[in-house]
Amino acid sequence: MLAEALKAEVDAYVARFADQRDETGRRLVVRNGSHTPREVLTSAGAVEVTAPRVNDKRVDPDTGQRQRFSSAILPPWARKTPKITEVLPLLYLDGLSSGDFVPALGQFLGSAKGLSSAVITKLTEQWKTEQRTFSQRDLSEVDFVYLWADGIHVNIRLEEHKLCLLVMIGVRADGRKELVALADGYREATESWADLLRDCKRRGMRAPVLAVGDGALGFWGALREVFPETREQRCWFHKIANVLAALPKSAHPGAKKALAEIWNAEDKRHALDAVKAFDAAYGAKYPKAAAKITDDLDVLLAFYDYPAQHWIHLRTSNPIESTFATVRLRQRVTKGPGSRAAGIAMAFKLIESAQARWRAVNAPHLVALVRANATFEKGKLVERDDEQPDNDGRESGGDRHVA
Prior knowledge:
The protein is an alpha+beta fold.
């Protein structure tokens, strides 16, 4: 039970400092009754919890402040346990089977109610339906200006081949991030991405202004076919890993610093200067490493043509990577979901839960200007004066100036 776990946590804390005493020989850390009972909302309903109280008289020598005990099981601010809709997809994708939820979560939630295998199965069927409805929705009313794409691999417990989730997250014209599409693909193949992009276009999706992703994706060939007007930006997170793989470990510290001078430059001109410096430093000894930068220069530096406030968002496919990082789907060997449909449904619920916490891009008001083909130099908006007629009645373009 939760109360027993809290008591055990407090007892362990008090025992850890049992040898610390004041000048009169009394312990500095002791139990001090209990806090006022409070209700904690769980998936099984509201549970009344009485947390033990600790009197900690120790003083931090650096700050002069009293030490305080804080429960890791039930923090002072906690009034509810994590939503079951967030916990279950995460654990299911991480390899927990439906029959494991009662022993794994029953004690933590204070009850096994709502965690039976039948209930979990019913929930997964509901999530499959929600995912199918999501994949058929109309996209004509939403304008995605930026787009991130990546392929996430998931082991399937009852099948030989892995499930490859094709994930696309976009930035709306108002600056908010939103899941655009999630589908089952085959090893991130170009045709799988093309099918997904064609389906999105059929449902009314406009061509994004800029797409961001790993250079190894089959996504790029599909993008050029379906949305040829969309510009491409390679993910620097993946590119740095590829460059370092072509260098000896002894060269990694210097190379990382040199690469940072490129992707974190003041503007594109300074970035190009940093590219020349990188090629001069590593091109002779490690031509393959240098070529990974010089051969993809246009698609590595495309983000510099957009608002400076957006650069931090456009350099990598981090929105997708960070969403799935908690379960380390690329590296960890797990049992995984039992079917491909269940895997897609679980991933959909995981992203749906994470999406509620996504923040808008910096300077969201500039996203609409990007769609309107505004010009940006050194990350700043270039404004044009209204065209004025010359003395002979002909119109001439006004001067440009940086906002």
